[in-house]
Amino acid sequence: MSKKIFLLATLLLAMLNIGAVSITGTRLENTFESEKNLALFDYTKSESSEEDFLDSTHFYLQTMAAGKEIYTWFGHSGLVVVNEKYGFERCYDWGVFAFSPTFYFDFIFGRLYYSLMVTNPKYSIVQAEVENRELIRRELDIPREAKRGIIDFLNYNSLDENTTYLYHHYLDNCATRIRDIYNASTNGEFKAWAQSIETNKSYRDYTTSLMGRSFIVNWTLNFLQGPSIDKKLNLWEACFLPYVLDQAIEEYTGEEKIVINAGKENTFSDNNPVLEATTVALIIFVLLVWSYSKNRRLWAFIISILLLFFTILSCVLIFMMCFSNHDVTYFNENIIYVNPLLFLALFSSLRALFSRKKREATMCLSVMKISFVLTLILIILKGLFMGVFIQDNFAQICFMLIIYFSAFTLKRP
Question: Using CA atoms, how far apart are residues 175 and 158, in angstroms rounded to an integer?
């Protein structure tokens, strides 16, 4: 009877995985679209009475290097407007979010509403100094006529009813907002130039290189993101990262950077993600095999911790794929081999941990073997249909394949 129940549960959970692969969420409406609102203003005219004011107004791209917190690992961009003659300077920052009572709830559902905040540039300088982060500026070569249009747009964007927008990790953030503004000042020439340059890197390539300081964070965030971030980008698309936008502006304008604070620069990891994941998995593999032979309860404890993590991760992924606005998680292949089927393995391993019966771990090992087969099937499918299964997830696949394979090396209790 127990075997029939196990088989039925396995089939039901496997069917759930197939459904989850094809379900997507509904895109929320952006409350203040960047290019749409920029198009409302004229960047080709200025009044003669404003010539002195506009000529003495300077615009700077401000770029801050990565910080210690995860949300600062990718750096930050701001637009600084300075007019020393008329005595004002402002920093326009599109990367502001507040830890409201509903922040984590909204984050889980992908309702990432950020805001524009206008401040004195000295605050970002103090922040860079306190956190020891490099802070640089690069002047934007903006024609007099376009300055008028940008100032009008910034004033419009700064109105209370216009400051909030729907943030997107790659498509709409603090860097892309400034990219769009500068492009408007060039009448679209900057975009045309940047789109003509191929980077041969994907969103995943760019972000992975900045997450090398933590294997767990790197592996997990890459696990949760699907194939939509694996296409090769042109330079325009790659400007979602502050440091790339700064490099693009430098190449396009030839302007030298102005160092405001000589703190710690961005650090880039050149580690091979697949090799790194394989190495970590092999260490865990040896630990599992050794503990199983020496102390079954120690093995049950270790495998239970692992299964708990992966079971929760699979539930988070299914939720994001089916019910959230996180479109970067949609059609994620990883749900095929890390899925709620692991609930059965977790239940079995916990029973083995707290029970004296040796056969309590049988279901755990069986589920791991089934998951191993599912992983192999995915590898075969990726080889046969490379144009369909395009997700760059070999680091995740290799890691789980080794963990699952450990079940074959253990004698049935």
Answer: 17
- CA gap 40, 152 in Å, rounded: 10
Residue 301: burial class (beta carbons within 10 Å; 0-12, 13-18, 19+): middle
Residues 6+ apart with CB under 8 A from 19: none
Tokens of 36: 């749409």
pLDDT at site 413: 56
The whole-number pLDDT of residue 380 equals: 96
Residue among 21, 290, 5, 253 at smallest CA distance from 143: 253
Whole-angstrom CA distances from 45 to 55, 145, 189, 199 are 14, 5, 18, 35
- What tokens does 242 get? 């502050």
Residue 401 token pair: 């394949």
Whether the Cβ atoms of residue 127 and residue 96 lie closer than 8 Å to each other: no
Instruction: Using alpha carbons, list the distances in angstroms from residue 358 to 111, 230, 347.
Output: 47, 45, 15
What SS3 class is residue 119? Answer: strand
Note the pLDDT tens digit of each residue in 131-163.
999 999 999 999 999 999 999 999 999 999 999
Say yes or no to pLDDT of 99 above 80. no
Please state the separation of Cα 68 from the chain's center in Å.
Answer: 16
Token pair 């692991």: residue: 342
C-alpha closest to that of 223 among 324, 376, 341, 337: 337
Separation of alpha carbons 396 and 226, rounded Å: 12
CA-closest candidate to residue 220, choices 314, 340, 344, 319: 314
Q: How far is residue 240's CA from residue 174's CA, in Å, rounded to a whole number?
A: 8
Residue type, 311: T
User: CA of 125: how far to CAs of 80, 137, 206, 259, in Å?
Assistant: 12, 11, 26, 11
Statement: residue 104 has pLDDT above 80: no
Give the torsion through C-alpha atoms of 205, 206, 207, 211, to 10 deg: 90
Q: Is the pLDDT of residue 1 over 80?
A: no
- Edge-to-edge strand order for the sheet containing 88-96? 164-166, 113-119, 88-96, 76-83, 58-64, 135-139, 258-261
CB 308 within 8 A of CB 346: yes
Q: Is 170 helix (H, G, I), strand (E, B) or coil?
A: coil
> Can you list the positions of beta strands (E) in 167-299?
198-202, 232-234, 258-261
Give the chain's count of helices (H) and strands (E).
17, 9
